[in-house]
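Me: I'm a chemist; would you kindly supply a protein sequence with its structure tokens?

Assistant:
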Amino acid sequence: MVLALIAVLIASAWPAAEAAATAAQPAAACQRRCGDVDIPYPFGIGRGCYLYTGEGDVTFGLTCNLTADGTYRPFCWEYEVLGVSLRRGQARVRNDINPWCYNATSRSMDAQSTWWWDVSDSWFHVSDEDNRLTVVGCNSLAYVTSVNETEYMTGCMATCPSVGRLENGSCSGMGCCQAAIPRGINSYWVEFEEKFNTSGAVAGFGRCSYAVLLEAASFEFRTTYVTTGDFVESTGGKVPLVLDWVVGKETCREARRNATAFMCVSRDSECVDSRNGPGYLCNCSAGFEGNPYLLDGCQDINECEDRRFKYPCSVPGTCINTPGGFRCSCPDKTTGNAYYGTCEANKSQLGVHIAIGVSVGLALLAIILSSAYMIQQRRRLASVKRRYFKQHGGLLLFEEMKSNQGLSFTLFTEEELEEATDRFDERNVLGKGGNGTVYRGALRDGRAVAIKRCKLVSERQKKEFGKEMLILSQVNHRSVVKLHGCCLEVEVPMLVYELVPHGTLYQLIHGDGAAASHGHGSRIPFATRLKIAHEAAEALAYLHSWASPPIIHGDVKSPNMLIDDGYAVKVSDFGASTLAPTNEAQFVTLVQGTCGYLDPEYMQTCKLTDKSDVYSFGVVLLELLTCRKALNLQSPEEEKNLSSHFLQALGENRLEAILDSQILGEESMEVIEQVAGVARQCLEMSGERRPSMRQVAEELGRVRKLSRHPWRGGGGRGSSDELEKLLAGRSPNTYSELQVSNGYLSLNDSAYIGIQSPR
């Protein structure tokens, strides 16, 4: 919808005027109202009536159309504009509701389960304060994710209770749910999870599910939306959506340097930085109102006569309007406080002197109280920092560091990390994800580090944070990113890691971003891919089997694997990690992770186990074999999900069809099929049937030896004997069954996956 909104704003651009100061002002005869909606500048109807940004073709142009009910309404293309707020920098529009409906005849879902828009080059963002992702239906699970699938993901699930338990106005999970969206987004995908949507297949409920971004304040749930499926009919298929906008993409400080293009042209206006990032708005100064984007557009408010305000002075005081304010005056030959009605006849000069003395005394008292208040605030800030430090387990860490002199871990102050990142400047951002933002930094000792500002920490995590940091600080593995320390004197802790300079495995495989210069998937030798997979598997096996206590990563994916010199891999981003649960109460109850990598069993049970990491690693292994993305919404339906596409191709003996063509030309099919067999075992739907990460690492290690073994080019019985000796060390529990028969290595009596004896 918003893509179409911006398209119409593009449609009516005109050539730039000679002088920016002239171009910023609309024509005097411009239409400023359409129907019952005011159209304030910088928006406008018709040429010369709205702000032309001068960047691309994006403008603030609208049209005023006659609608079917005989009234005129403002539109952006075919989408209706409900109103524009200059002070808040917002526009309300009607957003389309996208249903996904069950077809009882074909026992399938009609239409697509996903839709998207992208206005990343525009001057608009979806308001995170005013809008919510809203899902309506019976057992309906939907997400909203970033277009590139790595920046953010949020979603919610509307459950399917008995019809009698639904309540009008309640959108807390039964038949309706809502979830907050990230700040500053200007592109997203909305997608239904097909496995969990059963609307239309359950008696008593309508056949459609709905997912839409809408203005939370304007939405009220009705039970008929689920029982009869009349959400679209009752709303006309459209709901309000709030968009934030700016008139410049610079900060106020930067915009003022170009006086001819600065948009806050009214004399009594002020510039306001956007809260969504670079960009600014204009507002009239206090005591003024009007349009700050027009010359002399901000007019003084006459508080003495404006009926919107209560008369500000007390009788017998007289109100006198002043620019931006007012003052109260006592009548002639009287003195006192006209604001409080204490005007009295003039008295002797003694009273004047007394009044002056009292005023001076009050001024001194105010200075003393202000100083005391500042001192108190500083002490209060220090107290808050101490409370956060204690709350996050800082005392435990401090005591452990004193008792264990060999512990290489540092407790940083907030000031140290602000200095290292230039006060968390946006130019130092390395990446953003669902668990926080990572910044590049340089410590005072010259070490280059990556500093992660976490977003949210649960109450359980707060209580155990210090303990978990102590455990993570002792993780010492060449393929796990080293944790140097943390900062605990802030509300949400910050973590300090070693900096790995060459980007992520995702960028290396798909040729995107910082790792592009280091190589990409189509040029990575198979031996290097196998090396990366083996080292990553050993790191996860270390976390599962040798860390004390064991650690479950929780978000294994190629963007969380960093690449160092020599294609050495380092597992990173423990934002979703947890210690292995020891009882039922410790299981995670909120599904988190990344679409395409999520363990389907975890999605159903909300129980995060080490086998969840195994499934996600299997998807990473497929990325290395195929150079395809784990989830590609632009691909045909059967190829969107890489793991499903792989298993289908394997079942149809079409493995070569989805493999990267480069590795087919440089490695024997027998070795490639061995790796594919490991991936298939990792992707078992049941966690109990998957191997452990330790078994996966051992198997990949054997395959590496196999790929380098000198017998691979020879033949005869000796080579076959060597093969059997090489495989003899395999643990009998690595997979369900392992056989060498007729020259083939087969797993679980499934379709042939293995290696052929050399001839």
